[in-house]
């Protein structure tokens, strides 16, 4: 076994779709309790990198490790399925378009997986649903179907659903990009709360202010490579690379 | 010779018994066609080739040949290889599988049109592909095709008259027996038609109830 000293470790991640190389040798370490933001223009490979962490998109080269275990282990198909299903229980993911289960209530969305995979009793499942929905401020909508929730409320339920598995790591892929501007804050508040609880998080975002306020480190990606990486004070205020400067100038000007 | 419905009450007991058979066969075949349709759809979409290919053959037989012939095959044909089914069981299996193939087509399309994000979200919380299909994708797909499946079920009810040819005393055959005793075809066929209509109404009512329950979550 290779020595492994970081909580999350992405080693030489490489991903191609046919001849299109989407990730070109990306490495990234995240320590326990750290929050890393990934920024960059659309199409630069941010989602692909994030989705490689739980193997939703499989890398064509490189390794992903979480807490001493390799996520994308080379195993025979059946064994791999078992392994990856177990790993994914430890990795929560939040999508841009929420992907709540529309045929289930908020409560059922939250407890479905814990009930199936951890054999929770009905009582414990209800307690878990209440606990998690309370955390995201959605307890009063516990028996609502997603169709009756706003975008911000849906995303908060989706976060509760991910948290219900008690993950070690949370991945956010533009969690607020699909929301009306006035609904962004309620979701950001929930993410801030998780940050205060020292949840380890990797956050792909277009919101520079939010990224600057919560994250320990920023990664600027462009065309499948990490162009610049560092603490938010440096990357946002004093970027060393031209490409970063240009991206930020466009982005901050666009937002203003 | 005009219409004379006064002959009907004396034979109402056979007709009602025929009705019960028709309802029992239609309901059992409908249930079989529904769950069979789901199983066929999953096999067609996700089964390994050595299961998928024989199923394609079965599907072709059930879609490409007359239901009447299928009933003969199941009832008279299977006896030859030692499978001697009671007529009503053969009828249920024939009708059920025949419509399962049609339901499967609907369900396959519906499964493929469930948003990919649903499967991803389910896999992300740790569900296996089978669990995700069972708990997340298929319930949504089925929900989307309840109305067209309902139409198939009404066709099934009407086609259930065909099981009379293998000797099941369902509504049509009961009417024929009453006619045999009275020589009053017009009256008894009309009575049978009326009963089919009523059963049909019952099925439509059940379908509307199911649709209403589902619409709560939309
Ligand atoms: N399934 C796929 N097949 C082919 N190309 C893809 C696929 N998914 C993503 N890509 C390509 O990979 C690149 C990176 O995509 P993505 O990771 O979604 O970027 P980002 O999230 O930064 O916008 C894009 O050029 C995109 O077109
Ligand atoms: Mg993206």
From TrEMBL, chain A:
Keywords: Amino-acid transport, ATP-binding, Cell membrane, Membrane, Nucleotide-binding, Transport
Subcellular location(s) of the protein: Cell membrane
Main location: membrane
InterPro entries for this protein: AAA+_ATPase, ABC_ATPase_HisP-typ, ABC_transporter-like_ATP-bd, ABC_transporter-like_CS, MetN_ABC_transporter-like, P-loop_NTPase
Topology in membrane: Peripheral membrane protein
Domain ABC transporter: 8-248
Alphabetized GO MF terms: ATP binding
Matches recorded under CDD domains: ABC_HisP_GlnQ (cd03262)
Listed transmembrane segments: none
PANTHER family given in the database record: AMINO ACID IMPORT ATP-BINDING PROTEIN (PTHR43166), GLUTAMATE_ASPARTATE IMPORT ATP-BINDING PROTEIN GLTL (PTHR43166:SF9)
Family stated for the protein in its record: Belongs to the ABC transporter superfamily.
Descriptive protein name: Polar amino acid ABC transporter ATP-binding protein
From TrEMBL, chain B:
ABC transmembrane type-1 domain span: 19-207
Alphabetized CDD domains for the sequence: TM_PBP2
UniProt cross-references to InterPro entries, sorted A to Z: AA_ABC_transptr_permease_3TM, ArtM/GltK/GlnP/TcyL/YhdX-like, MetI-like, MetI-like_sf
Tagged with keyword Phosphoprotein: no
TM region(s), chain numbering: 20-45, 57-79, 85-102, 186-203
Alphabetically ordered keywords of this record: Amino-acid transport, Cell membrane, Membrane, Transmembrane, Transmembrane helix, Transport
Superkingdom of the source species: Bacteria
Membrane topology listed for this record: Multi-pass membrane protein
Keyword match Cell membrane: yes
Coiled-coil blocks: none
Subcellular location per the Swiss-Prot or TrEMBL entry: Cell inner membrane; Cell membrane
Similarity comment: family membership: Belongs to the binding-protein-dependent transport system permease family. HisMQ subfamily.
Protein name (Swiss-Prot/TrEMBL): Amino acid ABC transporter permease
């Amino acid at each position: 076994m290779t020595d492994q000293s970081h909580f999350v470790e992405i080693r030489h991640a490489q991903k191609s779709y046919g001849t299109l190389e989407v990730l070109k040798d990306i490495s990234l370490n995240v320590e326990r309790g750290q929050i890393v933001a990934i920024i960059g223009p659309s199409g630069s490979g941010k989602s692909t990198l994030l989705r490689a962490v739980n193997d939703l998109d499989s890398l064509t080269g490189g390794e992903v490790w979480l807490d001493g275990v390799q996520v994308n282990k080379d195993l025979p198909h059946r064994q791999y399925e078992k392994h990856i299903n177990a790993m994914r229980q430890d990795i929560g993911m939040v999508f841009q378009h929420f992907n709540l289960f529309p045929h289930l209530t908020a409560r059922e969305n939250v407890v479905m997986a814990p009930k199936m995979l951890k054999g929770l009793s009905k009582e414990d499942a209800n307690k878990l649903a209440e606990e998690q929905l309370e955390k995201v401020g959605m307890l009063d909508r516990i028996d609502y179907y997603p169709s009756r929730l706003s975008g911000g409320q849906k995303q908060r339920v989706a976060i509760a659903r991910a948290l219900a598995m008690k993950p070690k790591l949370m991945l956010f892929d533009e969690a607020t990009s699909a929301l009306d501007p006035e609904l962004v804050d309620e979701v950001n508040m929930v993410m801030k709360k998780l940050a205060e609880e020292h949840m380890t998080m990797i956050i792909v975002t277009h919101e520079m202010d939010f990224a600057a306020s919560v994250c320990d480190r920023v990664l600027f990606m462009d065309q499948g490579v990490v162009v610049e990486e560092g603490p938010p004070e440096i990357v946002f205020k004093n970027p060393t690379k031209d490409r970063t400067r240009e991206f930020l100038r466009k982005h901050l000007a666009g937002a203003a | 010779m005009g219409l004379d419905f006064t002959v009907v009450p004396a034979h109402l007991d056979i007709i009602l018994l025929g009705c019960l058979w028709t309802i029992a066969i239609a309901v059992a075949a409908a249930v079989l066609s529904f769950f069979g349709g789901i199983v066929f759809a999953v096999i067609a979409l996700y089964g390994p080739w050595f299961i998928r290919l024989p199923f394609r053959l079965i599907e072709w037989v059930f879609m490409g040949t007359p239901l009447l012939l299928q009933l003969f095959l199941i009832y008279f044909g299977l006896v030859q290889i030692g499978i001697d089914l009671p007529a009503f069981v053969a009828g249920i299996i024939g009708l059920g599988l025949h419509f399962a193939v049609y339901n499967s087509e609907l369900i396959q399309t519906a499964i493929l049109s469930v948003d990919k994000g649903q499967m991803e979200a389910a896999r992300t919380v740790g569900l296996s592909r089978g669990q995700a299909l069972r708990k997340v994708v298929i319930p949504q797909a089925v929900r989307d095709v309840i109305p067209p499946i309902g139409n198939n079920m009404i066709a099934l009810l009407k086609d259930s008259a065909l099981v009379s040819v293998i000797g099941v005393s369902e509504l049509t055959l009961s009417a024929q027996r009453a006619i045999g005793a009275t020589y009053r075809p017009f009256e008894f066929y009309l009575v049978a038609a009326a009963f089919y209509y009523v059963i049909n109404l019952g099925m439509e009512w059940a379908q509307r109830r199911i649709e209403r329950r589902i619409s709560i979550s939309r």
